[in-house]
From TrEMBL:
Chain segments annotated as coiled-coil in the UniProt record: none
Superkingdom of origin organism: Bacteria
Pfam families documented for this protein: ABC_tran (PF00005), Abhydrolase_4 (PF08386), Peptidase_S15 (PF02129), PepX_C (PF08530)
Segments of this protein annotated with the region Disordered: 415-437
Compositional bias per record (Gly residues), positions renumbered to this chain: 419-431
Domain ABC transporter: 669-897
Protein name: Alpha/beta fold hydrolase
Gene3D superfamilies, sorted: alpha/beta hydrolase, Galactose-binding domain-like, P-loop containing nucleotide triphosphate hydrolases
GO molecular function: hydrolase activity
Length: 982
């Protein structure tokens, strides 16, 4: 069978060198940008080896669990330090492949593995059980000590670091707290206390002021409020049965990785009650199930979560530690990293803290956060051991409307901690050794009454919305989008919120950390106590309320017969409040993300002293988060494309200059088989052809959608035809063609500077063309437009008619040989239309040509010498106005004997219908091809006196007859020529 052959269109063949050149340069530019982004890392040189390690199922157990792992080997000579890289919840070893390759390209051996219950690893999820998942990490360190590629500090003691995000971050911290062989530890967006993360209570006993350790844990021992939305995602991901897909990194906090594979946990009989636990260990499943139903953790759940939290071992971490925490994270807030940092520092360890504009509500970690982890591990594993850098980095998200700057990174010399009360041990880490700088603001009740009464409706429905777990903070979207969308999608409900506000700020203020307020609530007799949700709002001068990162502090106050005063820690944030804004502290009774008590209740809320001490950490701006590399790459790409486009334009103009039909150099316009198709398949113009001769005023007619304006835009080179040709004085028209300088146009409305005079507008327009001033013929154009002395008045004082005439004068500048006008009489009154008609007729009398598109058929009939009628993209009739009218309609005869005249006319050959108007006595006859003079001669010969013989048809009648039937249908009309109608 012969191979089919395809031929590319000639137009493509002519432009193929330019297209190919653009494609090549685009590819090169993209490659260059990628090369810049890799900053010299050569991940291609990294070798990988898949391994499976058997580890004990539990202490003293003879059963084993298989851990699926990949070892990434760098291209270096001799042994190298190693890193164990753990993934986030819901991921597996593939989730951290990119991070592992980057670390290996920097000279580190990396072991990435799937934790038990995830990916291809067997076993059940124990939520970082110290006897299982944490023991697995120690077993992997034992394995690394046997690899010849790994550098050893001593036999059995490899030089090794641990790192991970979210679930993997907690594992890294717990491994570092239980294995002294670990030499560096980097944990991202993870928890300190899983109890406080899933069942938070941000309150302390009355009179103690700001909590002295960290704002995270409750000091009065009250049970917290279940973070229902996040807990459901966190536990629901692990409850999926074997082979089901897991949640994505964004929802489950897997960091920068993607979704994990299905786990290979043992198959469970669906009739077994344990089937609902999926891949979770049964004790973990049971603990969550009881807590989720009741909304409060049992004692067993509290103990289980405590054992699986870095808080249980943080004081034993001696390796230099980096804590990277997200500022947009409603799952594990900034206070979680603060609690870990304080405990490490208090025990004498060295720790560095970094906040970044990301977190579980922003897709996990970011490239900048992962790069900070890589830099830290390389710094502390390759070379001599040294304490962690005590500096503190955070990000301020810019807001173009309020904060006046784009997002920027800031660095302070030391990390003072969130509460910053100076409770550290003076280890030199800067963690808690100095108090945080604070400024006091006064809060007053938004209602004017010190005590506000708010209600919790039955069933806690409807509930306030602050954020959506896994989707992110609605008020914490980047830049101005947060302020624009946050108030629309999230907010408090009337009657459920008590608000206290400051006066407008005299100057901007940057809040960095957490603050606390003393609030008196109650009384309440409900067994669940009083549950409130504290929020810190930024309120603009127009009333827009921004909840930074959608963060909320849940508070549960024990039941009491009298009001209870507690110290409430507000969410930890890094946020700049603009000058003129207010700061609002609000307390709500409901929040859709939490397990709120369902019983209806009324709660009184009052501030104890109305003082709000907001923390700030003075810091210096370092590198802006402005994406320099992509912008440089885009700019380079744009420059290349612009250069190619300029070259293509030059070549196109050269081709156009040579594309001249010598037989048409004296013809103003010839359009041949013109067509225009759009991407959606719509064909706006289909095979349009007509010719305009010198001295003609041609009217382009057609109903809306006929394709008139599209045709004119192609004529002026504004859009490119799909097929056909346009020649102006023999030259082919293309965008920017030199011959267009002989064409003046006014299409789709005029645009003038209102504060300038008409003359100034015209002179400014002509200077923009770059042509000599003497070529403008300004006075001649003004004389034809007949603006008189009004041309020296400011345009803003012009009537609509004067503006239209000024637009005509602008089109006449340079006295173009062809003038194209689209609806020039639009919006004019009858006297102005008459003036416009005279202007066009006078201009054509100079020997030039005018093309007019209009809906005013009576004016076209009086102004134009020729017409082209379009309908649905095709030409349906064309020719002189007189011929078009003359070839249509009956001839009306005024005679003395109407009945006899009618009989005589019916007897003539070629005459069609003949009617007598009983009221006027006129005889109307369809003469067809019969000359009216022949009919008059026949009547007079027969003795009938003829007073007048005339056609009564107007252009409007002909036009409506041409387009009426087709307008009601969807078919293309058939074209006709002047003098014959279909």
């Amino acid at each position: 069978m012969p191979r089919p052959r395809f031929r590319l269109p000639g137009r493509f063949l002519r432009t193929r060198p330019v297209v190919l050149g653009i494609v090549v340069l685009v590819v090169l530019a993209i490659v260059g940008v990628v090369a810049l982004r890799t900053t010299g890392s050569d991940t291609a040189a990294v070798r990988t080896e898949d391994v499976v390690r058997d580890v004990p199922e539990g202490p003293g157990s003879s059963a084993t669990v298989q851990l699926d792992a990949t070892v990434y080997l760098p291209d270096v000579a001799g042994p190298a330090p190693a890193v164990i890289l753990a993934h986030g919840f819901g991921g597996d070893k593939r989730s951290v492949d990119g991070q592992a390759r980057d670390l290996a390209s920097r000279g580190l051996v990396v072991l990435a593995y799937s934790a038990r219950g995830f990916g291809a690893s067997t076993g059940r999820i124990g939520l970082n059980d110290p006897d299982r998942e944490v023991a697995d990490a120690r077993a992997l360190i034992d394995y690394l000590a046997t690899r010849p590629e790994v550098q050893l500090d001593s036999p059995g003691d490899p030089r090794v670091g641990v790192a991970g995000g979210s679930y993997g971050g907690a594992l890294a911290l717990m491994a570092a707290g239980t294995d002294p062989r670990i030499d560096a530890d980097a944990a991202s967006i993870t928890w300190n206390d899983l109890n406080q993360s899933l069942f938070p209570n941000y309150s302390a006993a009355a009179g103690t002021g700001t909590p002295t350790t960290t704002p995270a844990p409750s000091e009065n021992g009250d049970a917290g409020v279940l973070k229902r939305g996040w807990a459901g995602i966190f536990f629901g991901a692990g409850a999926l049965p074997t082979g089901e897909s897991t949640v994505t990194a964004t929802a489950a906090g897997a960091g920068a990785g993607g979704p994990g594979g299905g786990a290979a946990a043992p198959s469970i009989d669906p009739t077994d009650p344990a089937a609902a636990c999926g891949r979770f260990a049964l004790n973990v499943c049971a603990a969550y199930a009881t807590s989720a139903v009741g909304g409060q953790p049992s004692a067993e759940t509290t103990e289980l979560l405590r054992q699986r939290s870095p808080s249980s071992v943080a004081d034993a971490i001696t390796a230099p530690t980096l804590l990277v925490q997200g500022q947009r994270d409603t799952l594990f807030g900034l206070e979680q990293a603060d609690a870990t940092a304080r405990k490490i520092a208090a025990a004498g360890g060295s720790v560095q803290v970094r906040w970044f504009d990301g977190g579980h509500d922003a897709g996990g970690t970011s490239p900048a956060a992962d790069a900070a982890v890589a830099d830290f591990l390389v710094d502390h594993l390759i070379g001599d051991s040294h304490p962690a850098d005590p500096s503190f980095a955070y990000t301020l998200a810019g807001d173009p409307t309020d904060q006046g700057d784009r997002a920027r990174d800031l660095v302070a010399a030391r990390y003072p901690g969130l509460s910053g009360t100076g409770t550290g041990t003076g280890t030199g880490t800067g963690t808690g050794t100095e108090p945080t700088e604070r400024t006091e603001f006064t809060l007053s009740s938004a209602t004017g009454t010190p005590t506000q009464i708010i209600a919790r409706p039955p069933g806690a429905s409807p509930s306030a919305v602050s954020s959506f777990p896994g989707v992110g903070s609605l008020s914490g979207l980047p830049g101005g989008a947060s302020d624009a969308l946050g108030p629309l999608l999230a907010g408090d409900l009337p009657g459920q919120t008590a608000s206290f506000v400051t006066e407008p700020l005299d100057s901007s203020y940057t809040i960095t950390g957490s603050t606390a307020v003393d609030v008196t609530v109650g009384p309440t007799s409900a067994s669940s106590g009083t549950v409130l949700f504290a929020k810190l709002y930024d309120v603009s001068d127009d009333g827009r309320r921004t909840l930074p990162s959608g963060l909320v502090s849940a508070v549960r106050v024990a039941p009491a017969a009298t009001p209870t005063t507690v110290t409430v820690s507000l969410p930890a944030v890094a946020h700049q409040v603009a000058a003129g804004h207010r700061i609002e502290v609000a307390f709500a009774t409901t929040d859709q993300g939490y397990a709120v008590p369902l019983e209806p209740a009324a709660v009184s809320v009052a501030l104890a002293d109305g003082r709000l001490a907001l923390p700030t950490v003075p810091a210096e701006s370092t590198t802006s988060s402005f994406p320099i590399v992509p912008v440089v790459g885009i700019a380079a790409l744009a420059a290349l494309v612009a250069a190619l486009a300029a070259g293509a334009t030059v070549r196109a103009r050269r081709r156009t200059a040579a594309d001249v039909d010598p037989d048409l150099v004296d013809v103003p316009l010839v359009i041949t088989d013109l067509a225009k198709n759009y991407a959606n398949g719509f064909r706006a113009v289909d095979g349009v052809s007509f010719r305009v001769e010198p001295g003609q005023v041609l009217g382009l007619l057609g109903p809306n959608g006929a394709g008139k304006t599209t045709t004119l835009r192609m004529l002026m080179g504004l859009i490119t035809p799909s097929a056909g040709s346009i020649r102006v004085f023999g030259h082919a028209v293309t965008p920017g063609a030199p011959v267009l300088s002989r064409l003046g146009s006014f299409v789709e409305g005029s645009g003038f500077l209102p504060h300038l005079s008409g003359r100034d507008n015209l002179e400014l327009y002509w200077r923009a063309t770059g042509r000599p001033a003497e070529d403008a013929h300004l006075e001649e154009a003004l004389d034809i437009a007949d603006l008189g002395r009004s041309v020296d008045r400011k345009v803003k004082s012009y009537s609509q008619g004067m503006r239209q005439r000024l637009a005509i004068a602008q089109a006449m500048l340079g006295l173009p040989d062809l003038m194209v006008l689209d609806e020039p009489t639009n919006g004019l009154d009858p006297p102005q239309i008459r003036t416009m008609r005279d202007v066009l007729i006078r201009y054509a009398r100079t020997g030039r040509t005018v093309l007019v598109s209009s809906h005013l058929l009576a004016e076209v009939e009086q102004t134009c010498t020729h017409v082209v009628v379009m309908n649905k993209g095709v030409v349906v009739s064309a020719g002189p106005v007189e011929d078009l009218i003359g070839a249509s309609g009956p001839v009306e005869f005024r005679v003395d004997r109407p009945a006899e005249a009618a009989d005589i006319l019916r007897g003539l050959d070629g005459v069609g219908e003949v009617l007598v108007d009983d009221e006027t006595g006129a005889v109307k006859a369809q003469l067809g091809v019969t000359d009216p003079a022949v009919a008059v001669r026949a009547l007079v010969t027969a003795g009938v006196e003829v007073s007048t013989a005339s056609r009564s048809t107007r252009l409007e009648d002909v036009f409506l007859e041409l387009v009426h039937d087709d307008t009601a249908s969807g078919d293309r009309p058939e074209p006709t020529t002047a003098g014959a109608r279909s």
